[in-house]
């Protein structure tokens, strides 16, 4: 049967005969030459050892098909700026749209601006204009576009002067590859280190709710990358976040999400450094075990792809010369090396996760050894140290995709700098800002750009870092990322300047279709764009203030019980004397005394004086590098209770950074790096040198902590119910112990026993902090509290009947806000804005325009005492900005002082620490002060000076 089939196929001689017949006599010499050439070509490629087949069994049809593949192999994508009549993603039926009276950031400098000026930010401005959109394209930008000139069915959106930008582009996201609640994970194909052949698209789930809430942050387009577990992770895809009829599409599909229906470019993800070593290295069995092995893996794969490309090129050249029919083999094709071959052919935009100099430099060598272009290094926390290395990359300098200030979490990120974006930009390298969703919630990727601006990257470059720069890097710079006629109509109208704290879209359009049917709009005044602060990039040095110092330009004072605003005509100064504030206000006589003593004077623009911030619930002081156990105190033991004070480490970058951002106090419980802590927390000063320094530890036993999140499940408590049962039993035992009213003192060590702490909890003298996210667990805690309090109230000896329970985490707490308020249980939100990172956080509110407010709004409205905690260490520095988000997006429900208290004063209230300075111990905040340049709740605020308790420092 097989033989019969083979005989049906045209033979090699059949295939060449007509050609031979016609030209036999006149072309003998040429035939010989071509035959020689063909023979030469055949013999040079690897599978050529079976070419001497005069009776060829190959299909002429397939050979011709193969030959047509050659054109595709040679195709080099170009970024087309040709005018389009319509956007290929446009759905016929989407109505034309006129956005009226917007303040537009086009993303382009004014015409005629030189390249040099544009780089410096000159020529960029916000313009007042209307925008007309039709067929998925921005058709017209101009002032006062007459509705009469537009199609009858045009819909009108009044922007009321609000800011309008292009849709945000996040070029590092894994959205849709893992499921909400972290139940499924299709991010990494961990079957092998070299998997360039897998495609992220195959795992993309269009139904994931995250597409909707990410888009509610203005993100319209993303590069969906495979993870970084493999040296070669696979192909990536650019998608737009419009899914199904609710978003103006006709279907729910992966294909419908592809941003470029023509698929002009392909994309790939690679990764260097710690991840692949950690995932694969096994001594004596498999690599890569070290960076040495990783480079071998890269080179070995690239070598095979290079040989593959060469064999194809030779086949195609021979087929061109002799005709496909005359080929003795088919075109070499194997899926394994197809995509990597396309990288070497320049058809793929490669993005590589690399942090450190050895990784960056090795990868730059690989690009030169194998001649392929890299478009961006991602994470890339050390790139700012080596711009010249990046410039040696083959094919052009890659861009860098960064977080603004998420750093120190692993050794590779321990040398990172908040100034990276600024430094790279000054060195001619493009910074972009990315989420690595779900590492950061992509919904807030614009906040990364905002912080980068705050750390000194020029405004236009920061905004470009989430719009036009990634668009260009994706090869779509002529279609998305700017508001330009002819571009895709991916548009965001914001409720405030996009690089200000809490900026939230009012509406988002993708290809001209509105994304939100009934968008929730936050109550905010309509304000012009922020005034650019040119001094943000200035480097400062920390110096001790000895004696007196004068700060001029104070505009606001928010110290305990003392709030004042000073106008520009009524300028205020602050005078520091021996670490303390001796006067704020006009201070006429104090000023002349200080000036007479030659006190240094520091001039501020818009100076604020506030109490310092407190980091609550983080592992600050117990963990330095999250991924490195040696830098931790270690996890709390399964049995018994330990005290964080016994494991505290001072110094280090985490504490220094917190301190320099005005977070001078921390309350930390034993944990190995999350809010899931168990044991006795300590209150301490982040700026202290060691625990014996005066006031360094201001409270060595703040509260008793237990875990009731998903991490509670394990060991002796396999379920949440068993964890709650155990806690109930312990607390009831404590009540019984109280009933026994043991006055005789037991052994000294028993004071540090779990039972002893629980007794203090039951007697109301020690707060109990429970980490919990699920509303059902929180409801159980509310019931447990009343049960225990009822038991306590039966004690005749009982003086206190209040069990002081505080919930840390609280993602779903808003669902029982009135009940929490009635039960007098405060909530410390950590994170402030949960986004379904785990199953027990899945009902977290992600905010406008998708949801009516977030958890904090409902809690505050119900009268619950709220704090903002720290979930991940790096966030400590952003406590002021987080309070700022709560403030700006509260619709006026939270005042400025109340917002500062979310990260300061409220912890004192919750924990009963307000009177600390009256009981002979160092204070937990009273007497301490921070002088800020700019509002501490806004982007760009800098700590200018801080002090209290005898010492003060200035950054100048
Ligand atoms: C859109 O659909 C309408 C109605 O089916 C049709 O008349 C029109 O030609 C279509 N427009 C385009 C540009 O395809
Ligand atoms: C644009 O909006 C602003 C703010 O609402 C308003 O003051 C102004 O009159 C509007 N301009 C036009 C042309 O409608
Ligand atoms: C418990 O002890 C306190 C003081 O030690 C005492 O005043 C009180 O009466 C005792 N209560 C009972 C029920 O024994
Ligand atoms: C949002 O919630 C607030 C109460 O927190 C309520 O007053 C308001 O009407 C709600 N808005 C919408 C659009 O549901």
Automatic annotation (TrEMBL):
UniProt entry tagged with the keyword Membrane: yes
Coiled-coil intervals in this record? Answer: none
The GO terms describing molecular function are: N-acetylglucosamine-6-phosphate deacetylase activity
Q: Which UniProt keywords apply?
A: Hydrolase, Membrane, Transmembrane, Transmembrane helix
Residue intervals of the Amidohydrolase domain:
457-513
Which BP terms does GO give this entry? N-acetylglucosamine catabolic process
Presence of the UniProt keyword Membrane in the record: yes
Q: Which InterPro entries match?
A: Amidohydro_3 (IPR013108), Metal-dep_hydrolase_composite (IPR011059), Metal_Hydrolase (IPR032466)
TM region(s), chain numbering:
31-48
Instruction: Tell me which PANTHER family the record gives.
Output: N-ACETYLGLUCOSAMINE-6-PHOSPHATE DEACETYLASE (PTHR11113:SF14)
> Know the name of this protein?
Amidohydrolase
**Organism per entry:** Melanomma pulvis-pyrius CBS 109.77
């Amino acid at each position: 049967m097989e033989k019969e089939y083979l005989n049906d196929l045209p033979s090699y001689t059949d295939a060449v005969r007509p050609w031979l017949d016609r030209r036999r006599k006149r072309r003998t010499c040429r035939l010989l030459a071509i035959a020689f050439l063909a023979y030469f070509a055949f013999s040079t490629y690897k599978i050529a050892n079976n070419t001497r087949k005069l009776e060829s069994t190959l299909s002429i049809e397939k050979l011709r098909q193969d030959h047509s593949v050659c054109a595709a192999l040679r195709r080099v994508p170009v970024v087309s700026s040709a005018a389009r009549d319509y956007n290929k993603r446009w759905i016929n039926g989407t109505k034309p749209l006129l956005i009226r009276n917007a303040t537009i950031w086009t993303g382009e400098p004014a015409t005629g601006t030189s390249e040099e000026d544009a780089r410096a930010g000159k020529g960029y401005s916000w313009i007042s204009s209307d925008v007309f959109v039709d067929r998925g394209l921005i058709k017209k930008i101009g002032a006062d576009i007459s509705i009469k000139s537009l199609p009858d069915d045009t819909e009108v959106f009044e922007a009321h002067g609000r800011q309008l930008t292009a849709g945000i582009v996040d070029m590092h996201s894994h959205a849709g590859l893992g499921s909400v609640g972290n139940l499924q994970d299709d991010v990494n194909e961990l079957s092998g280190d070299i998997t360039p052949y897998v495609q992220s698209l195959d795992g993309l789930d269009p139904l994931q709710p995250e597409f909707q809430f990410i888009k509610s942050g203005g993100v319209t387009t993303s590069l969906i990358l495979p993870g970084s577990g493999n040296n070669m992770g696979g192909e990536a895809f650019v998608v737009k976040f419009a899914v199904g009829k609710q978003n103006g599409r006709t279907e729910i599909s992966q294909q419908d999400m592809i941003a470029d229906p023509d698929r002009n470019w392909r994309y790939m993800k690679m990764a260097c450094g710690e991840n692949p070593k950690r995932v694969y290295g096994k001594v004596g069995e498999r690599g890569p075990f070290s960076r040495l092995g990783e480079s071998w893996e890269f080179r070995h794969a690239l070598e095979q792809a290079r040989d593959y490309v060469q064999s194809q090129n030779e086949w195609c050249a021979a087929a061109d010369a002799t005709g496909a029919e005359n080929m003795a083999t088919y075109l070499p094709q194997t899926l394994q090396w197809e995509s990597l071959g396309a990288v070497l052919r320049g058809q793929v935009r490669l993005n590589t996760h690399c942090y450190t100099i050895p990784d960056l430099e090795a990868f730059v060598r690989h690009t030169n050894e194998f001649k392929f272009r890299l478009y961006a290094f991602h994470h890339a926390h050390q790139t700012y140290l080596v711009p010249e290395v990046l410039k040696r990359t083959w094919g052009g300098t890659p861009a860098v995709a960064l977080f603004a200030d998420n750093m120190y979490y692993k050794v590779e990120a321990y040398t990172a700098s908040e100034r990276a974006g600024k430094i790279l930009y000054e060195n001619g390298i493009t910074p972009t800002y990315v989420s690595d969703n779900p590492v950061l919630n992509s919904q807030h990727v614009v906040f990364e750009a905002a912080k980068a601006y705050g750390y000194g990257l020029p405004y236009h470059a920061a905004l470009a870092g989430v719009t036009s720069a990634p668009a260009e890097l994706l090869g779509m710079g002529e279609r998305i990322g700017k508001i330009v006629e002819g571009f895709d109509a991916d548009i965001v109208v914001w409720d405030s300047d996009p690089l200000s704290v809490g900026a939230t879209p009012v509406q988002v359009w993708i290809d001209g279709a509105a994304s939100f049917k009934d968008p929730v709009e936050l109550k905010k005044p309509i304000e012009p764009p922020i005034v650019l602060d040119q001094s943000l990039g200035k480097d400062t040095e920390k110096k001790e203030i000895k004696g007196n110092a004068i700060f001029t330009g104070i505009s606001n004072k928010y110290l305990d019980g003392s709030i004042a605003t000073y106008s520009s005509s009524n300028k205020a100064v602050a005078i520091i004397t021996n670490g303390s504030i001796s006067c704020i206000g006009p201070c006429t006589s104090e000023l002349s005394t200080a000036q007479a003593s030659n006190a240094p004077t520091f001039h501020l623009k818009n100076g604020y004086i506030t109490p310092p911030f407190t980091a609550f619930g983080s592992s600050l002081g117990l963990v330095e590098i999250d991924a490195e156990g040696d830098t931790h105190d270690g996890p709390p033991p399964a049995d018994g209770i330990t005290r964080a004070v016994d494991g505290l480490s001072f110094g280090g970058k985490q504490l220094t950074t917190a301190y320099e951002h005005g977070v001078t106090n921390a309350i930390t419980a034993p944990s190995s790096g999350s809010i899931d802590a168990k044991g006795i927390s300590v209150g301490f000063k982040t700026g202290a040198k060691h625990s014996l320094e005066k006031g360094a530890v201001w409270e060595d036993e703040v509260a008793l902590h237990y875990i009731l999140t998903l991490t509670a499940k394990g060991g002796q408590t396999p379920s949440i119910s068993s964890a709650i049962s155990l806690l109930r039993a312990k607390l009831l035992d404590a009540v019984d112990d109280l009933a026994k009213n043991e006055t005789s003192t037991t052994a000294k060590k028993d004071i540090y026993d779990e039972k002893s702490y629980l007794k203090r909890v039951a007697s109301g003298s020690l707060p109990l902090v429970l980490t919990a996210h699920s509303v059902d667990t929180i409801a159980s805690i509310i019931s447990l509290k009343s049960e225990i309090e009822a038991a306590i109230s039966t004690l005749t000896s009982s003086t206190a009947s209040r069990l002081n329970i505080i919930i840390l985490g609280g993602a779903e707490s808003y669902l029982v806000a009135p009940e929490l308020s009635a039960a007098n249980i405060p909530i410390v939100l950590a994170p402030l804005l949960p986004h379904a990172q785990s199953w027990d956080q899945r009902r977290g509110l992600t905010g406008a325009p998708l949801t009516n407010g977030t958890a904090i709004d409902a809690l505050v409205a119900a009268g619950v005492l709220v704090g903002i905690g720290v979930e991940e260490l790096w966030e400590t520095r952003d406590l002021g900005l987080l309070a700022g988000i709560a403030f700006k997006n509260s619709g006026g429900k939270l005042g400025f002082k109340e917002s500062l208290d979310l990260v300061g004063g409220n912890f004192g209230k919750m924990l009963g620490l307000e009177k600390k300075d009256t009981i002979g111990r160092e204070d937990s905040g009273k007497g301490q002060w921070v002088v800020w340049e700019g509002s501490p709740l806004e982007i760009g605020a800098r700590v200018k000076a801080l002090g209290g308790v005898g010492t003060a420092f200035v950054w100048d």
